């Protein structure tokens, strides 16, 4: 008897993707959401996407915004890594970017515009 493994492999492409800041437009944000445009890079290949961060919680949560760039990101992941883009992958990529100086600068600008929204817990992360 031959058993076949039909399980989908665990997604691990995000450790091979570089997340690079592209731009930040404070006017796209509101008091609950922060949008930051980034470039996902793998070797010489790249794709633009927007991270959306939910700010009105105890912790900040982020993912890839479902907009005009989203389908291109899904294709990028499938083409270069033969994997499907999972929500958990999006959250990991967004969290990875949260550790950058660029993210912290964007969050500081956001905090200046919406000072009552940003909790002391989030400010200490800056």
Q: Can you offer a commentary on this structure?
A:
This protein is an alpha+beta fold. Helix content is 34%, strand content 24%. The protein contains 4 helices and 4 strands. Strands 1-2-3-4 form a 4-stranded antiparallel sheet. A hairpin with a 2-residue loop joins β2 (33-42) and β3 (45-54). The longest helix is centred in the last third of the chain and has 13 residues, at 101-113. The mean pLDDT is 88.
Keywords for this structure?
single chain; alpha+beta; four-stranded antiparallel β-sheet
Layout of helices and strands, plus pairs?
Blueprint: E1 18-23, E2 33-42, E3 45-54, E4 61-64, H1 70-81, H2 87-98, H3 101-113, H4 120-125
Antiparallel strand pairs: 1-2, 2-3, 3-4
């Amino acid at each position: 008897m031959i058993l076949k493994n039909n399980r989908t492999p665990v997604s691990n492409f995000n450790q091979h993707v570089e997340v690079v800041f592209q731009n930040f437009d404070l006017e796209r944000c509101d008091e609950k959401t922060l949008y930051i445009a980034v470039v996902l890079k793998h070797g010489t290949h790249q794709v633009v996407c927007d991270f959306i961060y939910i700010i009105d919680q105890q912790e900040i949560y982020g993912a890839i915004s479902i907009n005009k760039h989203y389908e291109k990101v899904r294709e990028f992941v499938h083409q270069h890594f033969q994997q499907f883009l999972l929500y958990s992958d999006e959250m990991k990529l967004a969290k990875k970017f949260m550790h950058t100086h660029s993210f912290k600068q964007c969050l500081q600008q956001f905090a200046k515009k919406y000072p009552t929204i940003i909790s002391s817990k989030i400010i200490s992360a800056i």
